[in-house]
Amino acid sequence: MKRISILLPALFLLVSCSAPGPKTLTVMTHSSLAVSEAVIKSFEKENNVKVVFLQSGDAGETLNKAILAKDAPLADVLFGVDNTFLSRALQADIFESYRSPALDSVDDKFKLDASNHVTPVDFGDVCINYDKKYFTDNGLAIPGSLEDLVKPEYKDLLVVENPATSSTGLAFLLATHAHFGEDYLNYWKSLKDNGVIVVDGWETAYYTNFSGSSGHGAQPMVVSYGTSPAAEVVFATAPLNDAPTASIIGPDTCFRQIEFVGILNRTKNRALAEKFVDFMLGVQFQEDMPLQMFVYPVNQKAALPEAFTKYSQIPLQPAVLTPDEITANRDAWIEAWTAAMK
Amino acid sequence: MIIALLELRSISKTYQGQALLKGISFTVNSGETVCLLGVSGSGKSTLLRIIAGLESPDDGFVLFNGVDLASMPPHTRDFGLVFQDYGLFPHLNVFDNIAFGLKMQKIPASEIKQRVAALLKQINLTGFESRRVTDLSGGEQQRVALARALAPEPRLLMFDEPLGALDRTLKDDLLNELRVILRRTKIPAIYVTHDQDEAFAIAHRILLLHDGVIVREGTPAAVWNNPGSAWAAQFLSVGNIIGGIVNAKGKVKTDYGAFTLTCKHKHSKGEKISLLIRQSSGAHETLKLKVQDVIFKREQFEVHAQGGLVFHVKERPKVDGIIPLRVKVECLHENPKEKPSGRGSLSVRR
Amino acid sequence: MMENMLDHGDGKRRKFNVQGLFVSPWFKRLLLWLFPTLFLLQFFFVPLFRILILGFDASALKTENFSLAFSVLSFTFYQASLSLALTFILGLPSAILFARYNFYGKSFLRALTAIPFMLPTVVVATAFNSLLGPNGWIHTLLPLSSFQFMGTLTAILTAHVFYNTTIVIRIVGNALSRLDPKLEYAARSLGADSSRVWWNVILPLLRPSLLAAALLVFLFDFTSFGVILLLGGTNFSTLEVEIYLRVLKLPNLPLAALLSLIQLIFTLIFSLLYTRVINQTTVQTAPRFSASSFPANIREKIFAALLVLFLSSFFFLPLVSLPLRSLTRLEADRGQRTEVQYGITIDYYKELFINRRGSLFYVPPIQAALNSFAFAGLTVLFSLFLGFPAALALAKPTWLEKILDPLLILPLGSSAVMLGLGFILSFGSALSLPIFVPIAHTLIALPFVVRALQPAIASIPERLRQAASTLGASPFRVWQTVDFPILSRATLTAATFAFTISLGEFGATLLLSRPDRPTIPVAIARFLSQPGGLNYGQAMAMSTILMIITCVSILFIERDDNRFA
């Protein structure tokens, strides 16, 4: 007993003291961040800095926590705000403006923030994935549009995520709104009549319900990502000739997500933070992202890995809504959807 | 011929591979208090549990009124139990503890109240009805335990070292009360203890339990006068035990002299036997022993003499002096395991 | 002040004033509560207060908020009560089974019932789904038409029973084995048959532990979150889920604050009820441990056999699917032009040790396991250090305890999400320090530890302690030589709870995680966040490793349990 009471404060001391030496750059992000060790190490070495990552939940949760802590920020840089949260983030005024020179290599359609409080880093699409084998075995035609999904031959075959709890599900909801406008609730009611399954989040939908994943679920169609088929090939247990799944890329069937990074207000490491933003837009990081996070680089100079070019499709007409529109209406749309789907 | 109320026939039990009870047989009659005397761990409590039906014997029968109890579960046997650590129900008060057995018999509440009140009077605890049992002193708790066992008017009472946790004066008082109650209610009782003073005070008959068998059975006086074996004599502190060798013509040579003895058993020349030396004013033999130590014991003096022998005298002898002592020298069975032959030959009145 | 002057034989007389200090009961009591209250203040009340103050404003008090709160509260209450009842229906006979009977595989089965407690919800959901889901074994083996499991109330209730039965088994079973067998003998000799012995003697004496277990189980079910979300689908919502939504998803902080407040108030009500109803002064006159024996007669044998069969199936079947999945190649049904692969493989386990993508956040399994153990070990230390004094004080409660005891339970019944925000407000970036992980776990584990220790402490007869102190033992020595040996078993139970709560990462949502200090549940979640057979297989492999580790840990911790029998 006595020994413990001495250990405790000692432990506290030990742990609280940060090692003196290189400076620390703290990056707050969501739990989906993945990056090669070599890539980060090169940044650390070049700038004599230790990069520390703080993760907490998904994009929305991370943003909310950052907003809560804005008077005493938890980090220097926040990565992971996406276009569905952009306006909220900007309104909360938690970022400092910075225009990275690397933005010159980025297409304008990604530069959703003219004030450069946030900088685009990657993009991806939330698309419906389908299980190829199921469709061939059952002689079904692959649906080409959102309207197709309510046809009787696709009854009980689609699983979606709850937009209230899942950002993937929210993206799909936004896609239906972009396509059907105010009529979107009728569409959802038809989907409901056609037996759509709603689950809480992507893990459950993909691994529990989707037949095309290792979970061997019951539904051959799931709201997932355009890059998921590529991931299935990359992470296959044994080499595959072809992706077992693919995306439905009809008009507005996919929703474009763009992720941003921003320097948090009151950071004490402004210079380093700027370097980090530049670094994230640099070719090395951008080319590393696809096989780590399964997103597309915004830097046009970055080359795509083979898996992406072969197995992942970028839709020609992804559903797009302006950040302001999303921020203004998201809560209302979710509540309306929840009521309609009861 | 009166049939014994409780009869044990050849009860045997092994515990963890060792034989604990080996063919125990005895009887208890109406109005009789039988005492099971033996060292701790000799299986006395196990025997009680077997009689109560809480454990089954490996072999043997328990009969009551001639009926084999093997098929009767404990709650139907109507045998009362009193434990050393009282075993009172801590979540019930005094009244409910005592009334427990009556409740089980579904006796109406008004009658329960009466009977409990009467019992409380009997044990001198009137007014204690709503007291928590954990607030009572040891002696009070034991009396409540007794009242609880008595309440349902059992056919047999069993006491498992009930006074073990109490101090000297309390013990004596309670022992007396117990005696009175037992004599009055005439409920047959088995009283288990390792304390011979208790046994002598309360029992009509004593059973000495040693090594899983009953080595001696008889009234307190009979057992005292004739312990029957070296072990029994030692256990009861009847007197002093010495060893000797038989020589020609029935004389036994010992360190203290040669004695002529009449023994029940025939001994051959050269055989080693044990002898019991008891103080007796009217006895024939006299020993002259050197005094090594004298201890004051209120009305007499305890004298430790040469060879480790212990005697009691009225006047204080001088240490290192020699005192004469009149003693009785008796035979003892060589083999402490050997018990007197079967039921028939015991001096038990039927 | 009492002076205790002892002659040490060297002619000096020493005075021990400290003795007098210790004699003062109030000082002793305050000292006992010092650290637990400081801990709760710093790591619960202050952060919670700050976030509630921040969030709560007039807009929270709209009528529609109250009607939402009411309907959600009713469902929360309803499912928690049902879950509690079912958990006891399984848990009570199981507690009896483990306390009274010996049988082959007893330790293993006991450890098995405790494993779910430590598994992350996503793993349990996967396990149930592979057994009972639309493509699960049951459907394959017995093609019943449509029985829907996932997304139903049945799934929620089943998962709750699956998780919480171990609480009843441990707390009630422990108390049961502490019952003096003489009480049963006495009751039987007084004419009570088996059922009346139970009803009139055993159950009343078990009341404190029954209530303690009931309170803990109920609170867990009341604040259940992951189970509702993952297994209940979108049809069900409890207070905790709503708070989560309103805090992190559709931010409506005032409403979330209101719901948190309601949740807190009800938790307080439940724990006050508990302290009122519980009979604190039921004391065993002497602690004994009843030996457990092999079932003797036919009735006992049938009871034991049926229950063992049921428990084994209920706990084993869902869990065994995880190791099975981790060892089988899952690419059997791949689309055309792909190679069909079948068979058993250990590739997923091998893959765990390879950082194929060179990822910065790669989790080496051994490191993850060590981290999990380190945090669990610290949690055990902290919660015992804080829980023992609290349990000691509660053993002889005064008005102080009547106030502090419910407060001790509050963390269990409050929203982890809200508290997490409170942590951010209170601690800022310090939150990423590793010490916060065991601290958060300790918050949850503390009520368990106290509930496990307190009945045992209360049962130590004062006589023994007094005897020891008159023989010259200081209060600490008395504690060491009298209390501790008697409390060993209860301490073991308490330590096991703290350990398993920490391994299961309850309370982890309070924190910001550092990916360079991963634990096994974090690793599992990472694997499941991306598609691909390798990812899924590794998640299964990690889950299996977690299960094996926890099983072995429990068996190890409790290996001496039979010594006490």
Shape of chain C: globular
Order of helices and strands of chain C: EEHHHHHHHHHHHHHHHHHHHHHH
Average pLDDT figure of chain B: 83
CATH architecture of chain C: Orthogonal Bundle
Low-confidence stretches of chain B: 336-350
Counted by DSSP, the helix tally of chain B is 9
CATH topology of the largest domain in chain B: Rossmann fold
Side by side, the strands of the main sheet of chain C go: 1-2
Query: How many distinct folded domains of chain C?
Result: 1
> Rounded to an integer, what's the Rg of chain B over CA atoms?
24 Å
Count of extended strands of chain B: 18
What would you give as the CATH superfamily of the largest domain in chain B? P-loop containing nucleotide triphosphate hydrolases
Beta-strand percentage range of chain C: under 5%
Assign the CATH class of the largest domain in chain B. Answer: Alpha Beta
Largest sheet of chain B: 8 strands, antiparallel
CATH structural fold name of chain C: MetI-like fold
Keywords:
heterotrimer; B: 350 residues; alpha+beta; Rossmann fold; 2 domains; eight-stranded antiparallel beta sheet; six-stranded mixed beta sheet; 9 helices; globular; disordered C terminus; C: 565 residues; mainly alpha; MetI-like fold; disordered N terminus
List the helices and strands and how they pair.
The complex is a heterotrimer of chains A (342), B (350) and C (565).
Chain A: H1 2-16, E1 23-29, H2 37-47, E2 49-55, H3 59-68, E3 77-82, H4 86-92, E4 95-96, E5 118-131, H5 132-137, E6 158-161, H6 167-180, H7 184-193, E7 197-199, H8 202-209, E8 221-225, H9 228-234, E9 245-248, E10 255-264, H10 270-281, H11 283-293, E11 296-297, H12 306-311, H13 323-341
Parallel strand pairs in A: 1-2, 1-3, 6-7, 6-8
Antiparallel strand pairs in A: 3-10, 4-10, 5-8, 5-9, 5-10, 5-11
Helix pairs in contact in A: 6-7, 7-13
Chain B: E1 6-15, E2 18-28, E3 33-37, H1 44-52, E4 59-64, E5 67-68, H2 74-77, E6 79-82, H3 94-104, H4 109-122, H5 138-150, E7 156-160, H6 168-185, E8 189-193, H7 196-202, E9 205-210, E10 213-218, H8 220-225, H9 230-236, E11 240-246, E12 251-254, E13 257-260, E14 272-279, E15 285-297, E16 300-305, E17 310-313, E18 322-331
Parallel strand pairs in B: 3-8, 3-9, 6-7, 7-8
Antiparallel strand pairs in B: 1-2, 1-4, 4-5, 9-10, 11-12, 11-14, 12-13, 14-18, 15-16, 15-18, 16-17
Helix pairs in contact in B: 3-4, 3-5
Chain C: E1 6-7, E2 13-14, H1 17-23, H2 25-55, H3 63-100, H4 106-118, H5 121-132, H6 137-141, H7 153-177, H8 181-189, H9 194-222, H10 226-232, H11 239-249, H12 253-277, H13 298-327, H14 347-352, H15 365-395, H16 399-409, H17 416-427, H18 436-458, H19 462-470, H20 475-503, H21 520-527, H22 533-557
Antiparallel strand pairs in C: 1-2
